[in-house]
Batch of 2 targets.
Target 1
Amino acid sequence: MPAKNAVRTERRKGVAVTIHEVARHAGVSPMTVSRVMNSNSNVREETRELVMRAVRELNYTPNAAARSLAAAQGTRIALIYTNPSAAYLSELLVGALAGAARTAAQLVLDTWDHMSHAAERVAARKIAQSVAGVILPPPLCESKVVLSELSAAGIPVVAIASGRFQADLSSVRIDDFRASQEMTEHLISMGHARIAFIRGHPNQTASTLRYDGYHAAMTAAGLAIDPALVQQGYFTYRSGLEATEKLLTRKSPPTAIFASNDDMAAAAVSVAHRRGLDVPRDLSVVGFDDTPTATTVWPELTTVRQPIAAMAGSAIELLLRSIRLRKDGEARVVSDHVMAHVLIKRDSVAAPRKA
Amino acid sequence: MPAKNAVRTERRKGVAVTIHEVARHAGVSPMTVSRVMNSNSNVREETRELVMRAVRELNYTPNAAARSLAAAQGTRIALIYTNPSAAYLSELLVGALAGAARTAAQLVLDTWDHMSHAAERVAARKIAQSVAGVILPPPLCESKVVLSELSAAGIPVVAIASGRFQADLSSVRIDDFRASQEMTEHLISMGHARIAFIRGHPNQTASTLRYDGYHAAMTAAGLAIDPALVQQGYFTYRSGLEATEKLLTRKSPPTAIFASNDDMAAAAVSVAHRRGLDVPRDLSVVGFDDTPTATTVWPELTTVRQPIAAMAGSAIELLLRSIRLRKDGEARVVSDHVMAHVLIKRDSVAAPRKA
DNA sequence: ACGCGGCGTGTTACCGTTATCACAGATTTG
DNA sequence: CAAATCTGTGATAACGGTAACACGCCGCGT
């Protein structure tokens, strides 16, 4: 056995800055740098500054693989969805992915389309033992079966766009009621009085809230709501088609249609066109969500912007925080993030034909 | 086995089977298991069998994080896109994400909308030093500026759905020409002769190929192509609207419209409806790609299924292989993966009104 | 004074896998 | 027939982080 350590096999790769270099640069131990990066615990303000400066100067980015390996936090988190509209899904994914990259979490995707309750229960149990947390967009975040199974397994869950705040479930959402109310007020301020409403899928709280917002605004303005002008929809283009058809065949049709999401609003525009109506001259149409659909159709839709991508990102951060906390033995914390929505005015609204 | 592991700070997490357990089970060293898993080099057939059995019995899955950490493959890869349709994007992302998870690559997303060539060059240079490989969907995969910058930096690139095979660029795609030809033949076999075509964006090779396929099928069937029945489109809903409008205002309108993608086909359906035409009774409409849009509109579109998600997954695997090879000092290899397409028949096609 | 409990930080020991080299036995070579 | 080469496998040291614990130092109660 000759002297062996003289060799020092060169296995280093590229240019990647490691935590050790940062540590040396800042004159502290790697562990301290780690603590700063995770804004975890007690580090003196002075030291933190020192480290942060080094981080900035070296342009250091933690290595995700190493981090998740060492942390063994089981940083796998699942995002489970069921047949959302494509437009919605793509935004959701972009946001979630960005969030996962930022936090070094490993994101796993799963689709649970057309599942029975029993199947959902099984799937939930299975997912529970392979990930450390779950993100649930609607309508899954309202499924008692899934929720109870997941919470029985003790893994944190964050709901996205769930509408209401549930006491035992963290959520990231917008204020659907207010948003809907504002949209309705906008329509009223343009001179509309016969405003029809196409409801969303009844299994989602947000649907109810959006209707409530519409109702509140109408009532506040002293406008009666003709029950025939409220149609049930299911958030799908198809359902929007049918609802609009019913609305426009009435003897005294509405001058404006407020659909609970963009897909249904797009369908409303399509039906209006088919019937020879001009949008917005003969009929105003507004949607909700501001998915890409809103700017795809012509005319572009006035809608409420729901920042889905940002919400997904927040959801991931929230989830990771919960996971860490839970590991620390803390009681589970639930929090409720309400993000800002924006009323986006485009070309699908005008004053009614003749007031 | 008393002593030794009495202390053994309990840091172990879940149930994950490690390479060591497999090794012990098979009676070999972990290194040998690793070799088998990577189907790398010299392992006796007998030993390999032994290991594989153990792997199967224990249901072992390599830990992605550890693998990429140890391999130091610099597994960050970028997926860069510019304003694709939402439907397209969501499929792309789902596939890429799944692929990245499977291979332990870290996927980073980037949008390069509305960039000048100069800006693209800068962006390319920047991305080149932060990732080990890039995946490029159209139209970016046809941008000389980007391509040359990236190849100058020496990082592997894989193009998705690029249409043609470029000698210096690996790609994953379908046979656009054949697919388009088959679709056209389908229309012809239904009895259509006046078949209009809406072209895709001229900056994409796939557009040309799809047109060529249509042209070839028409010619082969002895059908003349009325130049007025070929309209330029840009893959957007809006452009489909305009193209269809022109098509249907002609004195002798087509009995079928073949749009180069689903978004434009959806637009065609919308215009037809607006003009009081029934689809498919008065006019057949077909699309291309089989994005969610195809099943959103009514009637659902006959289209060509392009397996975008699977293609994205393959692209990632291809890319990683290139990265590994390149690291081994191999000359760069380019390969061309042509995946299968499928003609999906739905409800937007019927025989023409009166032959 | 003495011990006790925090606080801020460094040390050590891993996380699960692979690169590299060592090495015994089989095979070829001079 | 010994030396050189090849083959298959094992031992060891990373890869870049973080958990758990150790260790001074300080203020505090008794």
Note: Chain A touches chain B through 44 residues (CB under 8 Å).
Target 2
Amino acid sequence: MSAEERRLDVLRAIVEDYVATQEPVGSRALVERHQLGVSSATIRNDMAALEDDGLIAQPHTSAGRVPTDKGYRLFVDRLSSVKALSGPERRAIETFLTGAVDVDDVVQRSVKVLAQLTNQVAIVQYPSLTRSTVRHVEVVALENARVLLVVITSSGRVEQRIVEIERTLGDDLLSDLRGRLVGATVGRRIPEASLRLAEVIDTFAPADRPIVTSVVTTLTHVFSNERSDERVAVGGTANLARFGGDFDGAIRPVLEALEEHVVLLKLLGEATIDPTVRIGTETGNDSLTGAAVVSSAYGSQDQVLATLGTLGPTRMDYPATMAAVGAVARYVGRILADG
Amino acid sequence: MSAEERRLDVLRAIVEDYVATQEPVGSRALVERHQLGVSSATIRNDMAALEDDGLIAQPHTSAGRVPTDKGYRLFVDRLSSVKALSGPERRAIETFLTGAVDVDDVVQRSVKVLAQLTNQVAIVQYPSLTRSTVRHVEVVALENARVLLVVITSSGRVEQRIVEIERTLGDDLLSDLRGRLVGATVGRRIPEASLRLAEVIDTFAPADRPIVTSVVTTLTHVFSNERSDERVAVGGTANLARFGGDFDGAIRPVLEALEEHVVLLKLLGEATIDPTVRIGTETGNDSLTGAAVVSSAYGSQDQVLATLGTLGPTRMDYPATMAAVGAVARYVGRILADG
DNA sequence: GACTGGCACTTGGTGCAGGGGAGTGCCAGA
DNA sequence: TCTGGCACTCCCCTGCACCAAGTGCCAGTC
């Protein structure tokens, strides 16, 4: 083993010990708990080098070392491998999620299971409307010149709107309209379906266009509904209290951030199907010094639906957390693809 | 002013000062800040009497006095009057809530406004299904022997289910079924509508009964949906950090309680249209020593829809909180009654 | 009888000094 | 390149004295 390799070994040991004990780790404790094959004096030299590289730091002169954000970054990138979940853990996720009755329920259960598994704050974005396809569109005439519009998406979400129109809709026109709407949208992704909708209006007789237009406009609104794309569920905030003093600031700004859904969506970040880790400033949120986010996209092979993840102290068990996030993402994706 | 009256005046002053300063209040500070017309020695005697009655307590021998739960109770019952909201506050509630687009939005906005107004944790229960009436029922035939069932309630909530039936539904039967379902349910309260539904099945020809039964059964399920009756929204948890050390325990058990919706519903308690206050053990929750709940039912005059309220430290501004809870409840009730 | 001024007493908080412990950096030697 | 040893630094805990705030009680006054 080269000296360079041993230095990285030392870093790994420091991260692991610090995560376990929450206390700065010194050279002596290190040689006692790990088989490094050298003396504490050597470790001290290595530590000095690691500190020069900005990978670890000392809270004060005569204290042990603590990993820096950069140190965690290196640990995640090169020194750790994703831990496999235990059988019972995997079964727990599966049985718990399988019991869900609808999309909302899936999301809420995912949040709960993820929070319990990781002992951190769990964040799950609702399946995106814009990323799923249209499974069904239904138009129903109600009394008093009103129409009920129902859209069912491939992720199982159901959206409905009531449209006021200028006169009662005849049965012929109704079924004609229904047929063309279905033809233009079903099976297509939402953004494409939106485009096709615009063409539908022109295929109707001029006399019918006002009515058709109000229905189509409402449908377009449903498709472009930003609000529902922003929906997220949060759970396990009680865990914040557990790692209380860890965040440089108080937990208050963190709780505030968790209530701002826009902030949360930024935190989850861009979708990748493998778990991504953002540490400290990498989260792009100033009030989250001392915090890290582990996130992953979920969906089926060819279709990303949304993102989920956890928020915890930088001092977290990255391998375990990444495993949990990855596993839950896979199960959620599978369930929503089936349903 | 009798001696007895002055004692209650002293209690009121202690509560007000303690709420304002968060520090035990002594006899000297009391005579300085209030026009009590007697010396600090007299106040000391009064305080000793109040302490004998269990209305105030000393953290330690040489400290000032702090109100006990019993003291707050007396204060709320006899010594305070509900503070009127300021004009800007009332206008803020109104404009903020008026912008809501649907029931979910109303609830979410209410939580936000209530949390901001009171600087406490806000809890809003979604309008109860069982307490509202049926506004509309719609049955739509989908492809592949499936039927879409839509229910719209008086509170504006829309529920939908897809029912698998054994064979495709003829147009005649469909409109017949729709008509009878509407006749049996629309305009009635959900529990009563449920009862009527049972009779509908028998009015159909035996051959049609299997299909009718599956639809009616599903509809009954929607009506008796307990899950949606349990839904609550929580906001302002960041305020917990503000009154941090106030709760006897840590904030952790409180955060945990806030994630358990069942616990929250118990906290909101039985519905009364005027703001109710529960202090300390009165909340019926052991982990909430040091906390108080102010809650109120909302709805129209003759119809209670659900409950909302706030959770804060016993050391809170009761008059202001009760005013805010009452005002938000009134506005929410009005908006949902109109919508 | 109710109120007041005065006084002794209690107690938590703060500032200060000293000792112990953990850990480091560095140096000389293998 | 590694190791043992040693001097040094700094945090943290403890004990101590002191102060401020507040009380309880008592004797005196209206």
Note: Residues 24, 26-29, 41, 44-45, 47-48, 58, 61-64 of chain B lie near DNA strand D (CB under 10 Å from a C1').
